[in-house]
Amino acid sequence: MIRTGWYELPDGLGPFDLKRCDRVLHGGRWATIVDLYSPGSSGRGRVLHLDDGRYYLLRPGERLPCGRRAGHG
What we know:
The protein is mostly beta strands and 73 residues long. The protein contains no helices and 6 strands. It has strands at residues 2-8, 23-26, 29-37, 46-50, 55-58, 63-69. A 6-stranded antiparallel beta sheet has the order 1-6-2-3-4-5, with no helix packed on it. The relative contact order is 0.35.
């Protein structure tokens, strides 16, 4: 089962703390996160490395649909 919700980067964590293997809706298509990085020296936001080879900068305050497989129990 896939749980879906919105992930955003305010000053703290959003409803989902994005992790590797989460799926995000980007450019009208679902993609899997391969890795996450802090961008440059500012460290504000997160760079998402997607399985389609693209990189996406998610800035604080931006929202992104996210899906994650439900864990046990």
